[in-house]
UniProtKB/TrEMBL annotation:
GO terms for biological process: mismatch repair. Residues 108-144 form the DUF559 domain. Keywords: DNA damage, DNA repair, Endonuclease, Hydrolase, Nuclease. Belongs to the Vsr family. This is Very short patch repair endonuclease. The keyword Transferase does not apply.
Amino acid sequence: MTKQRIAPRFDALSPASKQASAVKRKNRAKGSGAEALLRKRLWARGLRYRLHAKELPGKPDIVFRKLRLAVFVDGDFWHGRDWDQRQRKLAQGHNPGYWVEKIRYNLERDRRNTLELESRGWRVLRLWETDILKDPDGATEAVARLAQARAIQADRRSE
């Protein structure tokens, strides 16, 4: 069993500015604009799902229980999109030790949660928030195709 890292703490840090603190406080763990857009489009296509299953690793944003399909809508900043580039930028900003470690921790946690779900027989799909916002039809289609494939697999297993 691998040793799980502890998330970085804010204790010894000062905010970059009142404005930066206010912006970060408004970031949502659930129900982001991209997530709401994707959910609305999936529902319109007749796909029924549950939200934020607390009993599953990582509390997936969208869950198709019968299909064992978990969908995460990952925020570009918090989940380290383009990590090499983002890491360099964070290293030049305020509280770089915290932010680099925080996002690195999030990346490791996401990998652990994905592996744990997969080991339990779940299929995991991770979508970037900006990809959903740029092409909501494409993101919806990706989820729908995977859900359909999982439904076909489930039907074959039950025969």
